[in-house]
UniProtKB/TrEMBL annotation:
Keywords, alphabetical: Hydrolase, Magnesium
Keyword set includes Hydrolase: yes
Lineage: Bacteria, Pseudomonadati, Pseudomonadota, Gammaproteobacteria, Thiotrichales
This protein's name: HAD family hydrolase
Cross-referenced InterPro entries: HAD-like_hydrolase (IPR051400), HAD-like_sf (IPR036412), HAD-SF_hydro_IA (IPR006439), HAD_sf (IPR023214)
An example Gene Ontology molecular-function term: hydrolase activity
Top-rank lineage group of the source organism: Bacteria
Cofactor: Mg(2+)
BP GO annotations: riboflavin biosynthetic process
Pfam families associated with the record: Hydrolase
């Protein structure tokens, strides 16, 4: 079967996630300190992150939807300090803007430009990065996330939703991501082909093997043509 569509994970596949989220948390905290200082007087940044994680752990049914659970947590925070309800939306927007300030891995643009001439491209992400805001939207035909799919990786439903958006059968789609369970096993269990993006050359520990393992994104096109 010929591969017609290639889908990408975003965080830690096209850019490093941890420094982006760390900077976004810092930006949001500084904004809160300026506009809603009672919160930052009560909580330093580390304590505020711990407060959010406690909220997340107490709402496991929402834990997969990072956008909604952050909004709900911010709303609770606004209520706790008697701030107006719009604080939650405003604070989330500040976080979201910073969260979308990413530094692409070397070779990402070149790989996307080349692949887009031969395949339909899409994204499948559990996060809330926005490829259009980042400036990558022109390369992708569709973007799938928790909000529009109603499910998160590695659940098969999010991959099935991507199949609908792509207009392709599972056997015509190749998914690429860094996470062994969420990306590789999730895609394989949904019937897709799966590339494990493994630039650090970690050891694969799962019984089911990825279709292909790569260390560089410029290997994708050659591997896709072999399938």
């Amino acid at each position: 079967m010929t591969i017609k569509c290639i889908t990408f994970d975003l965080d830690d596949t096209l850019w490093a996630c941890e420094p982006v989220l760390r900077r976004a948390e810092q930006t949001c905290y500084r904004w809160l300190a300026h506009y809603y200082p009672k919160i930052t007087t009560r909580y330093n940044q580390k304590q505020l992150v711990e407060n959010r994680l406690q909220y997340l752990h107490s709402h496991p049914d929402q834990a997969f939807n990072f956008t909604q659970i952050r909004l709900d947590w911010l709303a609770q925070l606004a209520d706790e300090f008697s701030y107006p309800a719009h604080m939650a939306d405003d604070a989330f927007h500040v976080f979201w803007l910073a969260r979308n300030e990413v530094t692409l891995f070397a070779g990402v643009l070149e790989s996307l430009e080349q692949l887009a001439t031969h395949f339909r491209l899409g994204t499948i992400s559990n996060g809330n990065a926005d490829v259009n805001h980042i400036g990558l939207g022109k390369y992708f035909d569709f973007s799938v996330n928790v909000c529009n799919a109603g499910a998160a990786k590695p659940e098969p439903e999010i991959f099935h939703y991507a199949m609908q958006q792509a207009g392709c059968d599972a056997s015509e789609i190749l998914h690429i991501g860094d996470h062994p369970q969420q990306d590789v096993l999730g895609a394989l269990n949904a019937g897709l082909f799966a590339i494990w993006y493994n630039p650090s050359r970690d050891v694969w520990l799962e019984d089911k093997k990825p279709t292909v393992i790569i260390q560089s994104l410029d290997e994708i096109e050659e591997q896709a043509h072999f399938l």
